[in-house]
Specification:
Blueprint: H1 2-18, E1 28-30, E2 35-37, E3 40-41, E4 45-48, H2 59-69, E5 73-77, H3 80-83, H4 99-108, E6 112-116, H5 147-164, E7 175-179, H6 191-203, E8 210-214, H7 218-224, E9 230-233, H8 239-248, E10 254-259, H9 276-288, E11 293-295, E12 310-311, E13 318-319, H10 338-351, E14 366-369, E15 372-376, E16 385-387, E17 401-408, E18 415-423, E19 425-430, E20 433-439, E21 446-449, E22 458-465, E23 480-487, E24 490-491, E25 495-500, H11 504-508, E26 521-529, E27 535-538, E28 544-549, E29 552-558, E30 565-568, E31 576-584, E32 593-596
């Protein structure tokens, strides 16, 4: 890791030269039209990035890249379910969970911070950042004054405040403002709920200004903004948008809280590549009129593990790809893009400041990695629990991964099998033989079960829970079989249910078996590195599944594209022998992998 060490040393030297402007306490306030830093009008030129989506070893590099593009502020979503992965247990210390350290690095680099802590954030992130353990409560209501939800929110804000209170600008830190909720006017209209959130923050010592963020429409601003909070516009693109904010409250400043250089991509789509000319026109307008703005996102990063969310737009269920490159100015691997240089030129012209870029993070090409089939999910089943009918993951205290549902067919033994409300992807087996798959994306509900000579045929349904919906009215998106299974209209009863969380202990303790392989196979391979560096693991030889490198879950892959390579950062690799494990839902034949220097952009 010599190269990364040298980058860190260089970064420390740079930060000593750039942090002078933030020494000591400052004041930040809302004027009638302007944001006031130490009593003077201040234009925030913000770039958003999310510490959970970036290896902690690269936080400083990405912040320096945003600064070199011309930003003076970093906006950061904090994901509640990432900080509290288990109910009542918070992680603010390990790896990229240490959000206080991320904000401290922003300060060391001379950057201000807009804190976006939720509790709901959207962000194409699993359940919009809300912990899925809440979905174990059958009648829970989210983003409102449901007492059970509010109690959990209070616990979260209290814990987070304890970490970040020293980071407020009023206490000598870089946090200028805290956002209350996120785009609430697109979801609900309980302004008392929003006020309750603000009160929790104030009770925990938050004495900096608050802001809200909503679309620039009258009904969204009326429902989503609260008196005394600055108005964020998603996005503020023209004078008409800012006029809407002034109608809502003429006594607080407004800004473009999400100006979009790129856009998100779902599985099965082409990569989103918004037009750069429109972006430059919008940013030019904001710079010329001295409006503050936040680029969502300046750097996207990666939905590692099971963190990618989903939408439920006009196409139905739309799960997000693993990459959160977002066609952003700074690529997933931290490189400047064409948009970066265009925005840097525009911002530099406006501010007159030019800052040198940090050194690029090195990459490595890994030649062919031989793989071998070494186990199956069927040979690693835990002790089942019995259910009269199938229930969703949450009912079995499982948040992510897979669940296997198994039953004997009594009465009807062939015909039309219907899974009511499948969430999200199922492979179906009869007497151990693969029958087919159902995909929620395609509206799949029914499949034909063939005749069998077995007296008591065994039906198995292996269900993958993909990303929970993160936007709009379908947030309560439980996983697995969420209602029932019928065969020719007959409800199937008496199920054995196997929890398969595919978490670190599960993968670490896989039992090797190489006989009688069937879909649901684990493959393993090793590769050697002399100098670890970033790479992209090429999965184009596989169909659908998950990849781990040295125990780190890189995320999902799927041969429907557009993503065929998964980002693997150098801090997760080591000098010498490295191990890669692939789980594939369909493939039984081992095929080689490789490592590439760039993200595959094949559509």
């Amino acid at each position: 890791m010599k190269t990364i060490h040298n980058l860190a040393v260089t970064a420390l030297l740079l930060c000593s030269l750039t942090s002078y402007s933030q020494q000591g306490k400052h004041s930040f306030a809302l004027g009638q039209k302007d944001f006031l830093l130490d009593g003077k009008p201040f234009q925030m030129i913000s770039g958003e990035m999310h510490p959970a989506r970036i290896p902690a070893e690269y936080w400083r590099h990405r912040i320096q890249m945003a600064k070199a593009m011309g930003c003076n502020t970093i906006a950061a979503y904090i994901f509640w379910n990432y900080q509290e992965p288990v109910e009542g247990t918070f992680d603010f210390k390990t790896s990229n969970h240490d959000v206080a350290r991320f904000i401290k690095i922003c300060q060391e680099e001379g950057m201000w911070v807009l804190l976006r802590p939720g509790p709901y954030v959207c962000a194409e992130w699993e359940l919009g950042g809300i912990p899925p353990y809440l979905l174990r409560i059958p009648d829970i209501k989210l983003r409102c004054r449901d007492p059970r939800y509010i109690a959990a929110v209070d616990r979260y804000i209290t814990a987070l405040s304890g970490q970040l209170k020293p980071m407020l600008v009023s206490n000598g830190g870089p946090i200028l403002m805290v956002q209350v909720e996120n785009e609430y006017g697109s979801f609900g209209n309980d302004k008392t709920y929003l006020e309750d959130l603000r009160k929790i923050w104030v009770r925990n010592g938050c004495n900096v200004p608050f802001y809200t963020a909503d679309g620039a429409t009258p009904y969204m601003l009326e429902a989503g903004n609260i008196d005394g909070a600055a108005i964020g516009l998603d996005s503020g693109s023209n004078e008409g948008d800012f006029a809407q904010a002034a109608k809502r409250n003429p006594n607080v400043p407004s800004f473009s809280s999400e100006t979009y250089p790129g856009w998100l991509t779902h599985w099965g789509e082409k990569w989103a590549r918004p037009d750069t000319s429109g972006l430059l026109k919008e940013v030019g307008f904001l710079l010329d009129t001295k409006r503050s703005f936040n680029l969502y996102v300046v750097h996207g990063g990666t939905n590692f593990g099971f963190t990618a969310g989903a939408n439920s737009g006009g196409k139905g269920y739309e799960p997000d790809v693993t990459s959160y490159d977002y066609d952003a100015p700074i690529s997933e691997q931290g490189l400047p893009t064409t948009k970066f240089w265009a925005l840097r030129k525009l911002i530099t012209k406006s501010t007159g400041k030019t800052i040198e870029l940090p050194k690029a993070i090195p990459t490595v090409e890994i030649p062919e990695i031989p793989m071998k089939a070494f186990s199956t999910v069927w040979d690693n089943l835990p002790t089942p629990v019995w259910s009269v009918q199938p229930k969703p993951f949450e009912a079995y205290n499982q948040d992510y991964g897979f669940i296997l549902y198994k039953t004997k067919l009594i009465g009807h033994k062939k015909g039309k099998l219907t899974i009511t409300e499948l969430h999200d992807y199922a492979t179906i087996f009869l007497n151990g033989q693969y029958v087919g798959k159902l995909d929620r994306r395609e509206g799949g509900r029914t499949i034909d079960i063939p005749a069998s000579e077995v007296q008591d045929p065994v039906l198995e349904i292996l269900v993958e829970g993909m990303g929970r919906i993160n936007f709009a009215q379908n947030l309560i998106d439980r996983k697995g079989i969420t209602d029932r299974v019928t065969l020719n209209g007959m409800t199937l009863m008496n199920w054995d249910v196997y929890n398969l969380p595919f978490d670190e202990p599960f993968i670490k303790n896989l039992k090797p078996v190489t006989q009688n392989l069937k879909p649901g196979t684990f493959f393993k391979g090793t590769f050697n590195l002399t100098d670890p560096a970033d790479t992209f693991i090429d999965l184009s030889n596989y169909q659908k599944g998950i990849v781990w490198v040295n125990g780190h879950n890189l995320g999902r892959y799927w041969n429907i594209g557009p993503q065929f390579r998964l980002y693997c950062p150098a801090p997760w690799l080591k000098k010498g022998t490295n191990e890669v494990v692939v789980f594939d839902l369909h493939q039984t034949e081992a095929k080689p992998l490789s490592g590439k220097r760039t993200m595959d952009q094949v559509n």
